């Protein structure tokens, strides 16, 4: 058996390999004379599924074009012969290859035991076939890279670094009539770069998670609302359950989906080359699709460890629909540079030369060649200690903060400036602070994966746009934050409302970690919130969910900044407490013994709290009213959402917690009175939440 390897980088095809082939040509002449000029090499190619045939077919065509050197026998087995998987042996016949032997080796069941039995059955049947055909060489698709084979102590002289044979076809595929192929498979109304190709297989080491991930993928694709070609999974254990998920969701009859068992490779090439995106966990996504620069979303761990081009975005932990949907918004419609990591289009000529160089008279004996140990093995301590991090931005009513946040939620470094009043000054300051932080991150050994932005107001997180802001942040309506930062820093950018970011921070780093349903309330200058339901952040149909500060708790309450009155924010926010503190101060009713307010210092909420602690009855009454309003809001949340936890966050949370719990005991239904209400233990929830958007949705690209 001979093995061809995949390269680790494009440059592997140059330099020493040119000399190798010159020497190989001389050796070929000597071996041909030794073997006898009339002696042909009998080559047996064994193929078991559509995926390996796409790699083996170019070699088979090459062998067929040189009948003076080779005789070809084709053995077909595995899922090629199964009707449920498209009877793909027919494409081998359509390619005008004679199938010498058909081996039925699949034990039905599609579980782990059936897979093992199928392998065993193939091993039992193949020896009889080989004894009958008596090939000199057998070619199979082994899916191993050169360095992996060397590390397994294989003889270096018997390993050829040829590249992937399918690239010979990919890099020469120029079908001007690709639109007819797109229309045939996806419909007459579909345009190039405006559809998705989805191909996802079960991961046999975690079938249950594979099925759940596939379900989330289909949900995300349904929400994304683009025409999608879905290929059925392979025959591995778990495939039947994945097909059941497709049928349960009505994918085969959904107007946006086309579900197929098989697409001929020539046509599949054109479909992925002109797709807006490919999604799934197929090796095709991380390997062949790079030849066209088509964006790819690689889900889960099935392809972990493979070298990939920059067109691949990994979503290793694809455990929520929102993550997958975010990835689709990031990748769809992009165009990346074409990659030749896995081949340069000349694999087949190399393989044929290699086959001709084999000395049939030389007895084959397994030899173990241990990889050489280099004398000076050194490691870069900076690389070992490199910290995967995010740039987090928090746009508050007063301050603008940027921080470098590590994967563990540690704030490595933080920068603070006053938030400018105009759009121009603000956006320039954000860019300046982020550029400086990114440069500093290199010195601090932090690898920045992306930028997360927390801002007040209503935000469209899919587009990275602030739709309109609170009155605290002026000139901040219809602002595209993603584009200028992404263009400047060359990093992915996420944007969300500050209340939502606080909830994300609790989910990843705080008391909401591991909980399926909880609500976060921020008590600061304003009142905000975030809702986590079934582990996912709720945005709402117009990105207005969790505006908890504007729950009305009194029909004749004070005016609110939103234009209404009686909102929680009108009672319990820092602005509301500042308003009441000023009234008391103007009437000389704020200060008590032990208190003073310097003339150059504005009266604020903290002075009211201090007065209450020192026994000021009027200040105590104002805080009790504010806490009651917040408590009534929490009761409404308990009755509406029925979360398992409510987290109070922000500078005022600790002052309200006891009053809120009293109101719940007095006003809430008995069925929700046991729900715990706690004070957040996170110091910077807005920054941590902004960072969590990056850390949850990005992984390190491998170039």
Description:
This protein is α/β, with parallel strands linked by helices and about 700 residues long. The protein has four domains: about 15-160, Rossmann fold, CATH 3.40.50.2000; about 170-330, Rossmann fold (3-Layer(aba) Sandwich), CATH 3.40.50.2000; about 380-510 and about 690-700, 2-Layer Sandwich (Nucleotidyltransferase, domain 5); about 515-680, ATPase, nucleotide binding domain (Nucleotidyltransferase, domain 5, 2-Layer Sandwich). About 40% of the residues lie in helices and about 20% in strands. The chain contains 23 helices and 25 strands. Strands 9-8-7-10-11-12 form a six-stranded parallel beta sheet, covered by helices on one side. A five-stranded mixed beta sheet has the order 15-14-13-16-20, sandwiched between helices. Strands 23-22-21-24-25 form a five-stranded mixed beta sheet. Helix 2 packs across helix 13 (about 345-355), helix 17 (about 500-510) packs across helix 23 and helix 19 packs across helix 20 (about 605-615). It is elongated, with a radius of gyration of 32 Å. The relative contact order is 0.08. Its EC number is 2.7.1.60, 3.2.1.183. Pathway: Amino-sugar metabolism; N-acetylneuraminate biosynthesis. In the C-terminal section; belongs to the ROK (NagC/XylR) family. InterPro entries: ATPase_NBD (IPR043129), ROK (IPR000600), UDP_GlcNAc_Epimerase_2_dom (IPR003331). It comes from Macaca mulatta (Rhesus macaque).
